[in-house]
Amino acid sequence: MSAGDDKRDRNVWQVPRDHQQGLSPAGADVINFDGHVVLPYRFRNKKMKTLKDVITLKFKTTESEGVLLHGEGQQGDYITLELRKARLVFSLNLGSNQLGPIYGHTTVLAGSLLDDHHWHSVVIERQGRSLDLTLDRSAEHVRTNGEFDYLDLDYEITFGGIPFSGKPTSSSRKNFKGCMEGINYNGVNITDLARRKKLEPSNVGNLSFSCVEPYTVPVFFNATSYLEVPGRPHQDLFAVSFQFRTWNPNGLLLFSHFADHLGNVEIDLTESRVAVRINVTQTKMSQIDISSVALGTGVRYRRCLEEGDTSLLQTGLCFV
Ligand SMILES: [Ca+2]
To answer: How many A from CA of 95 to the centre of ligand 1?
Structure first.
């Protein structure tokens, strides 16, 4: 226990010296999805049979789950791009043969911690069974399963969610809540069509053309920046909650003195583990409950390290 570190003994707010917020390009090409609305692009001839697909879009969100786009056909073909546990999941089926062993379901996973309210770009390029999924600057190349080359979709491809159809696949998936930019489906500028009211959004929810900023935004820290908040005098309760991400195995997350020289509390990372240290100089404190704090932050932190997101290298500590 390192008590008495006077550098940490502060009690006023200070704006961190290296405070950055997520940059959100103020493009005119954005669509905000509220988590309910779905934007369909209906095919002119009710069917779309493609040997080649090129789909591009950018998204930013604070949600870890949500369907970015979806299409399906009565033959069993489907295409779905979604976020699951803050990872990008692309599912494609060019056709399955239910009589034989041929099964076309193909899944590609990309990225992690994508619910960081920063823009991420996605490019899907398919030529027959050859598939490239590019997320930001990293590309995955796969060959789709099965023997079929054509994607056969019926009626529409939807953005921001799956319209309710009564099927279990649609009801178990969350709609996308966040912002998309520059949606292009095989040369069709979906964002532009939506802005010109050429597409009919679903009746539920709202589509808007500027990004809604979330109530909370991440705060970035480097090795020398910090944030100071005033304490609440004459209160017996000390309660704090936050989420964080970092690439660093060691670092001080929080420090506070208790009133009346009772001691202090310190939450830090030590060798990739969260430690809550309470230094009591007098025995006035009767109850200490730290379990939820330690578990909550630890899980997030471990996931960050396991998934090896190198983009965190530049950010240092990040509280969200
Ligand atoms: Ca097919």
So the answer is: 4
Cα–ligand 1 centroid distance for 149 (angstroms) = 6
- Give pLDDT tens digits for 253-298: 999 888 778 788 899 999 888 888 888 876 655 555 554 444 334 3
Are 83 and 66 in contact by the 8 Å Cβ rule? The answer is yes
What CATH class has 30-208? mainly beta
Q: CA torsion sign, 249 to 254 to 257 to 262?
A: negative
SS3 call for 82: strand
Q: How far is the CA of 121 from the centre of ligand 1 (A)?
A: 27
Q: Among 301, 31, 297, which Cα is nearest to 178's?
A: 31
Structure tokens at 191: 């964002």
Distance (angstroms) between ligand 1 centre and the Cα of 59 equals 28
CA distance from start to end of the chain: 27
Tell me the whole-structure pTM to 2 decimals.
0.67
Residue 307 one-letter amino acid = E
CA–centroid distance, 156 to ligand 1, in Å, is: 15
Compute, in angstroms, the gap from residue 180 CA to the centroid of ligand 1.
28
In whole angstroms, give the CA distance from residue 95 to residue 105.
Answer: 8
Closest to 16 (Cα-Cα) out of 305, 217, 270, 233: 217
Compute the distance from residue 92 Cα to the ligand 1 centre, in Å: 10
Domain ranges of the chain: 6-21+218-319, 30-208
DSSP class of 311: G
Distance of CA 94 to the CA centre of its chain: 28
Tokens of 164: 């309710």
Cα(44) to centroid of ligand 1, in Å?
19
